[in-house]
Amino acid sequence: MLAEIRDLEARVLGGVGVADEGALRRAIARLAEGFLAHVAEEDSVLHPAIQAAFPTGRPTLEALRADHAELRLMLHTLTTLTRQLPSAARDEQIQVVLRDFVDLLRLHVRREESAVFDVASRALSSEEAAELERRISARPGQDPLPGDSPGASKGTPT
Predict the structure, then answer these.
(1) What's the total number of domains in the chain?
(2) What's the whole-model pTM score?
(3) What is the crossing angle of helices 58-82 and 88-112, to 10°?
């Protein structure tokens, strides 16, 4: 997904990608699909487990969820813009929204690495981490498994 973002960023922000409307639409659609599946897994599996293990981390997780909401909105905006007739104004909007998306995503990944993944590596037992990995990989991009609820307590599936 990150390689796709870098490629899209280079083409669109470099001013050459907007000329190929079909490729732009496909790239945005693939980006949205991969990103939305990724954040759905974080929001439904990883973040609830971290919050249960480390309740004082709630403000950090709320900020990350707010990032997810903003990034989803940006992807929706990009999708909507690519469905409009090409124009200089539309192409400029695509460039601005894509640049904002890329910037926020980079910041979000850094925050996630320092806050969530660091805390998870220290707060979760190896068994809990393995269970999270199983739950995330069991049905990628789909609804959580039965019993996977945001209110699930640490180490005990609901």
Answers:
(1) 1
(2) 0.71
(3) 160
